[in-house]
Write a structure and sequence with these properties.
mainly alpha; two-stranded parallel ribbon; 2 strands; about 45% helix
Length: about 80
């Protein structure tokens, strides 16, 4: 699991979390991007409605524990890019 902010920083735009959301939304289906593995920096599913339900279902199918409010324990599932 990675946050939108982590991906924005890796892309060289530390303030570009919303841009990451737009790119994932626009390109995930056509390019097979694993959009469902990207969550808020607070460790929650940030989508609402059907999108949030689909994201939860996809994560749970991968064995990710998702709490009742869409929270995901980042200490267990969070991505920690290599600092080197």
């Amino acid at each position: 699991m990675a946050s939108y902010g982590q991906l924005a920083r890796l892309a060289g735009n530390p303030r570009g979390a919303r841009l990451v959301v737009r790119v994932l939304h626009a390109m995930s289906e056509a390019h097979g991007l694993p959009w469902h593995r990207v969550i808020s920096s607070q460790g929650r599913i940030s989508l609402t409605g059907e999108g949030g339900r689909v994201q939860r279902q996809l994560l749970e199918q991968e064995g990710i524990r998702v709490g009742p409010a869409g929270e995901i324990p980042l200490d267990v599932y969070g991505w920690r890019p290599d600092e080197t």
